[in-house]
Amino acid sequence: MSNPKSESALGGQFTFPGTSLTVRRIGYGAMQLAGPGVFGPPKDPDGAVAVLREAVAAGVNHIDTADFYGPHVTNQIIRQALHPYPPELLIVTKLGARRPADGSWQSAISPKDLTDGVHDNLRNLGLDALDIVNYRAMGSIHGPKEGSIAEQVTVLADLRRKGLIRHVGLSNVTAAQVAEAQVITDVVCVQNNYNLAHREDDALIDDLARQGIAYVPFFPLGGFTPLQSSTLNDVAAVLGATPMQVALTWLLHRSPNVLLIPGTSSLAHLRENLAAGQLTLSPEIRAELDGIAAAAEANRG
Ligand SMILES: NC(=O)c1ccc[n+]([C@@H]2O[C@H](COP(=O)([O-])OP(=O)(O)OC[C@H]3O[C@@H](n4cnc5c(N)ncnc54)[C@H](OP(=O)(O)O)[C@@H]3O)[C@@H](O)[C@H]2O)c1
Fold first, then answer.
1. What CA–CA distance (Å, rounded) separates 210 from 46?
2. Contact 92 CB / ligand 1 (< 6 Å)
3. Ligand 1 binding pocket includes 222 (Cβ within 6 Å)
4. Site to substitute for ligand 1 among 62, 136, 221, 233, most atoms within 8 A of C-beta
5. What pLDDT digit, counting tens, does each position of 2-30 carry?
6. Cα–Cα distance measured from residue 229 to residue 247, given in angstroms and rounded to the nearest whole number
7. Which pLDDT tens digit goes with each residue over 206-245?
8. Fewest CB within 10 angstroms: 106, 199, 203, 252, which?
9. CA 271 to ligand 1 center in whole angstroms
10. From CA 272, how far away is CA 265, in angstroms rounded?
11. Is residue 139 part of a domain?
12. What range defines the domain where residue 198 resides?
């Protein structure tokens, strides 16, 4: 592994617009640390703590979470593993859902739900203020749906004025919803479903890049059904890398405002994912990989 302290480590660095928050482009998504179905405690709590500690020791300074993972479980594991937090560590959380006792995903978007969600995150993470909070719109579950998000973003902007939130981001949103939110408050990042095979946000990524806003793909490896593609496998074999590493490196090449938060509960996968920052893809290989989305789209259609 390259020196974790160097500027080029983990895919280089990115500074969120209008902030002093700089992170390495390869971060870590903590959702996989809860139990099966992102509900309840993990099978291996010590393993979850070990993954987080190794990520930070390797130079990761951007962790994505939510208090509704578990619920509460993932944030409590982050606190157990890493508190008191290193000053350079950015923990990004999200609001907009709740998990009742039956394990279902319900929206939680009233002003009270959102305010309670901030306090749940503060308590379980052991923080006085949250650096970045994404408003996660329910949309059509793993994709966005048009409709006003002004009421919810206004609540987050109020919580920002009160000092409980430092910066606002959005998740599972359309370009129109980003524009609507920007009238209310500054938006520093957008977290949507995107990967090598799922590229509905291509235009949005380019638009956010022009504005210096981070685009943070969720499901960068395909999520609950990790990416499967013979082209990806062939390219990986030629490069002496794994398919998941190639998928992550492709995202790093996609645009300089793309930040990675691959999720894993495995130390071996964590190491593999962090090493993706050392891979480069030639224009020819990128063109070959670009064909995967069109093939996936044809299969879906
Ligand atoms: N805003 C939202 O709505 C939203 C939705 C979903 C997720 N997220 C965030 O985005 C992060 C990333 O998404 P995700 O974790 O759902 O999906 P992901 O990163 O695309 O993929 C995670 C899956 O891939 C496996 N995996 C990870 N590294 C691997 C490797 N090197 N080789 C083989 N398999 C590997 C994991 O299993 P193992 O544990 O076995 O490695 C897990 O099953 C989450 O952790 C969460 O923080 C946000």
1. 42
2. no
3. yes
4. 221
5. 576 677 889 999 999 999 999 999 999 99
6. 10
7. 999 999 999 999 999 999 899 999 999 999 999 999 999 9
8. 203
9. 14
10. 12
11. yes
12. 23-227+256-263
